[in-house]
Amino acid sequence: MKKAGHTVLITGGASGIGLALTERFVHEGNKVIVVGRDQKKLDAVKDKCPDIVAYVCDLRSEEETDSLAAKLNEKHSDLSVLVNNAAMQYLESFLDPQDGKIGERISEEIGLNLTSPIRLTAKLLPLLALREEAAIVNVSSGLAISPKKSAPVYCATKAGIHLFTKALRYQLESTQIRVFEIIPPLVDTEMTRGRGNGVKLSPRQLAEQFWHAYRRDRLEVPIGKVKLLKILKRIIPSVADALLKNS
C-alpha cells in the first residue's frame, strides 16, 4: 500500500488504538475521517489534527450505521481505506450475572464488535471498488486465537471478525482491495485499565508495527506477543489457551 494520498475512515478513531492509527495516517499525508460516539473526544482529536473530518455515530445502532454509510457514499466518494476498529468489552459471568441486563449487554457487544463492521464493510465496498488501490483493515484480538474466561462474548466477536476477515480476503483476492487484520495483544487503552501489570503495549507501538506491515502488504498482522501466541497455538495449543484463560 502506498503510504499517502488515501481517504481513510477509522471507527473508534478518537481514543486508544484508533487514535494512534488516526495520528499515523494523518502524519503520513492521508485524509482521515474519524467516527466515534463521544463528541468531546472527537473535538479533542480535531484540536490535534485540524484537517480530519469527524462524525458522531453510535455504531451499535444499525440505523445510525446505515445513515453513516449513506453520508460517506454521498460526501466522501474518494474513500479508499476502511479501518474497522471500534469495539467494547464487558466482563461477564453467565453463571452469576451482575443484574438482569445481560441480554442488553450481549446485544451491544455483538452489535458494535461484529455486526457493525460487517455491515459497514458491505455498504462501503462499492466505493472502495472504484479506487485503483484500496484496503479494509479489521482489528481483531489475540483473544480470537485463545479466549479468556471473563469475556466470552468479546472473545466470540473477535473470533468472528478474524474469520470474516479471512473469508472476505478470499472473496477479494482477485481485486485491488487488500484485506488486513491487526491482531493485538493487551494494549494500554481505556478498555484495559487496571489490567496487565505493566506489560501492556502502547497504542503508538501497535500503530508502528502495523504500519511496517501495511506498507509491505503483509495482510495478517500479529502484534507483539501475539506472534508467539500463534506459534504456541500451533505447536502446544493447551499452553496457549492456559496463558490467556485467566488474563
From TrEMBL:
Keywords: Oxidoreductase
Name of the protein this chain belongs to: SDR family oxidoreductase
Pfam family, one: adh_short
SUPFAM superfamilies assigned to the protein according to its UniProt record, in alphabetical order: NAD(P)-binding Rossmann-fold domains
Family: Belongs to the short-chain dehydrogenases/reductases (SDR) family.
Superkingdom classification of source: Bacteria
Residues spanning the membrane: none
Signal sequence residues: none
